[in-house]
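Human: You know discrete backbone vocabularies at least as well as I do. Show me how you would write down a chain together with its backbone fold. No explanation is needed for now; the record alone will do.

Assistant:
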Amino acid sequence: MKKAVIISICVAAVALIYFLSGKDEDKVKTNTALLSDAVSGADGKSRTRGIVTRETGPGEDETGWPYKAAGEETIRMDSGESVPAQENTASFRIQGEPDTQTYASVANFTKISASPQFTGYLVNFAANFEKINVSNQSTYRHVISMMLPTDVTPGVYNEKSSPFIVQFFGSESGVLYTLDYNHSFSLSIDEWGGPGGRARGTFSGELKSANGTEVIQIRDGSFNVGIK
């Protein structure tokens, strides 16, 4: 009887250690920015496409609207309206902000294997990638990143799915928001065409500051981007 009790205690202790170490790994994983030179081409040059820039009018700062995608007509965002993602963009709203934000994809969904924690299909969307120094996280601003498993099928991923990462840098440079087990977030893959095809889907939910307690809510998110 004593032997059985001792074995049970040992098993429980091992399970607890595994659980805690797993949480630590998740914390390291989500606190590390996905935006990296992993999205660069084989020659080391960043592949940017359709960079979104802001046009500012008299008395407006760089956070003013509307957005304008390079080579496209200005997209005017009426307060309270959600706008479906155009090709090679992600569109979404932040609760408390009246306008829809539209970021251009830095590259297609690309399969990476940088480490056990960073293995899967990665895509980054940015308002203006040219203003970001990839090697300096303090310059990251207006970026949303997603990483899906290596085998993707249409369906729903949430804050408890693994491997699955969503990260967001807003108007405050260098401040990272990411998935948290205590805050609901879901991303739906509506279409996954595989290499050479396209990925389309929607997303919404809460992201928590990686180094604090602040929570932001993303609403009406959608994306439309190619797959490498």
